[in-house]
Amino acid sequence: MGFGTMAQTFNAVTVENGTGMGRFMLVCEHASNAFPDAFGDLGIDADTARSHVAWDPGALALARALSKRLDSVLIHAGVSRLIQDLNRPPNAQSAMPEKSEVYLIPGNRDLTTAERLRRTREIYIPFHARVAAELAQRLARGEQPAFVTVHSFTPVYFGQPRNVEIGFIHDGDASFAETVLDRARVTTGHRCELNAPYSAADGVAHTLRLHATPYGLRHVMIEVRNDLLAEDAAVTRIADGLAEALRRALEWLEDVGNGKETV
Amino acid sequence: MGFGTMAQTFNAVTVENGTGMGRFMLVCEHASNAFPDAFGDLGIDADTARSHVAWDPGALALARALSKRLDSVLIHAGVSRLIQDLNRPPNAQSAMPEKSEVYLIPGNRDLTTAERLRRTREIYIPFHARVAAELAQRLARGEQPAFVTVHSFTPVYFGQPRNVEIGFIHDGDASFAETVLDRARVTTGHRCELNAPYSAADGVAHTLRLHATPYGLRHVMIEVRNDLLAEDAAVTRIADGLAEALRRALEWLEDVGNGKETV
């Protein structure tokens, strides 16, 4: 096959830094481009398996760096989004896409109901059950974690270059995303935008909607252009800036809530 | 103890009619007034354990009758809401209340974090994980179930009589609740009201918000005044009327969507 990412077994979900005392929950749905034997390679070639349609390159490294800096739990996925996109409802066409951007995915063509059901049972259900359980336990302990999903996006999409470098996307409540964005412009030095290169209206905020919004949690989906994550040193630098922005945003919003600041 | 409902073991969640081919998912969070040994009786007396603060009397019988008439899955809880109210976030005071209406619950006073966490792990997490899994599998099969929670309420609350007989409560999207309500007025002959005797703004729509709203599902929380459910014959009659209203509401909304009706 030639993929570096073929695997005999797989974990739908992995939790790291579960005992971290920080105030955040980090989730990385597109962490992996693994194609475990149970699902096969979907008939794609090695270039496709390494491309942004199979995963979010650099997102796991960034999420791990944030988890370390924020001393906060990280939950990440163990299979390619082409097998099951965990940031989509299981009935969405894009959850098991026949075509992603310009790439055809033969193994997703004319999927049987049985295969959709199997992937949902083996990947979607355990992943989101684990996120829900980690969250419920923190709530029961009296914590109100800020909920952060970590993604990367391709610099060129359908042939069009994207100028935005880091996007901050929210579901129902914009306040945390806006506050992080303001700080990230300074702390990262990158071109930061709200709800770019896409927004919840495009159906990309499923994880936030499923977990953060029902509990009224502060939340943001961070999207970093993946060419900025190609080198370790760059990941480190961006993680430094984003961790600082996330921490300051939470402090500022809590100070406002406590009357220490005026809005 | 004298409770008819003390139990050595317990199931946090029970699924009935899981292979039903109907278009609904029925959930009954307050089905049981069981106080399993693992949690004890919370220091309450037998009257309190039989009262509406411990469960929704008649709700399970009604939910089962609806499950049969609609040939649809029913998921119900196995412990008293005083141990864990599954229709509240686990961090809400009312999830493990020290006082419910006029009843003091000694076993919930000054709960330790460890005990809150244990109940959340043993009751809340498995219950909602099962609801989520049943729903995800139906979505993966291409179904779009209408999501219905079944409750009962006390005719007298803090000394005030309630005139409403059946309430229809919604979370974000009112359309299904309104449509069922209109039909239920005719099919049940009872005094039906929207968002009565309380509404999602009172924090009582947690289950709808956690499961139905993120997927954009049609949903309604049905609240029947519990004096109307005291006799089997009455449960049967109300179930007939509500099942008819639910079925007709779904058909009507789908016909509108298909252009067969004008709004």
TrEMBL record, chains A, B:
Keyword list, A-Z: Hydrolase
GO molecular function, one term: hydrolase activity
SUPFAM superfamilies in alphabetical order: Zn-dependent exopeptidases
Family matches, as Gene3D superfamilies: Zn-dependent exopeptidases
Pfam family, any one: FGase
Organism superkingdom: Bacteria
InterPro entries in the record: N-FG_amidohydro, UCP029730
Ranges that cross the membrane: none
Protein name (database record): Putative N-formylglutamate amidohydrolase
The organism of origin for this protein: Albidovulum inexpectatum
Lineage: Bacteria, Pseudomonadati, Pseudomonadota, Alphaproteobacteria, Rhodobacterales
